[in-house]
Amino acid sequence: MKHQETMLNTLIKENGLNGFSEEEIGDDHIYTGLETPMRPDAFDISDQEKKEKIAHLFGQIMDVMGLDRTDDSLKGTPNRVAKMYIEEIFSGLNPANKPKVALFDNKYQYNQMLVEKNITFYSNCEHHFVPIIGKAHIAYISSGKVIGLSKLNRIVQYYAKRPQVQERLTNQIAAELKSILDTEDIAVIIDAKHLCVSSRGIKDDTSATVTSYYGGAFNTATKIAELQNYLNQ
Ligand SMILES: [Zn+2]
What we know:
Elements: H1 2-15, H2 22-25, H3 47-64, H4 77-89, E1 103-105, E2 114-125, E3 131-140, E4 145-147, H5 149-160, E5 163-164, H6 166-181, E6 186-194, H7 195-198, E7 209-214, H8 221-232
Parallel strand pairs: 2-5
Antiparallel strand pairs: 1-4, 2-3, 3-6, 6-7
The site of zinc ion (ZN) has 5 residues, from loops.
């Protein structure tokens, strides 16, 4: 994890914020780096202990809000939330859950861009802990190896299952693909809806946020236009 995250940080230093200024990113989407901010003791306790602690603490939140936890409908909620956090929606925090990726030789000698589009993901905003729902589009040009298509999907899901900001999600997926596929020729586009914007706060139900990463050969107007053409089909 540490080695991997250090490598990710080097990549962000080299590649910057993909053209986003801090002003554009805005007050409530402060982007602090490629690395998901984690405590050094993050994995000192087991998943089971985490679930027990979260269930206890979530029960306290419900108590503070005045909910009657003896009600049949509410009494299982703390355990359900704890299980969901650790095993599902935040399972991507644990490097043990990282998808194992096998590479294959590019025996078809296909040397154009490969585009996997409309990968649906569900993430959660790390500022409000409410859902981010979106689609990721990934493209790469093989440097000699290819990856199973379902693995592209799994990599997106792994990084989505963390408290996230969209800019970091985009760059984490790109950094992982660069590392696995051993190429700079990677593009990642994410188009997502943030429930912290649509269901609360400014309550804008129609806006969506688009972020992109264009590396290597993709960082040219021609390649971006070609990719957009695939995405518009
Ligand atoms: Zn938010």
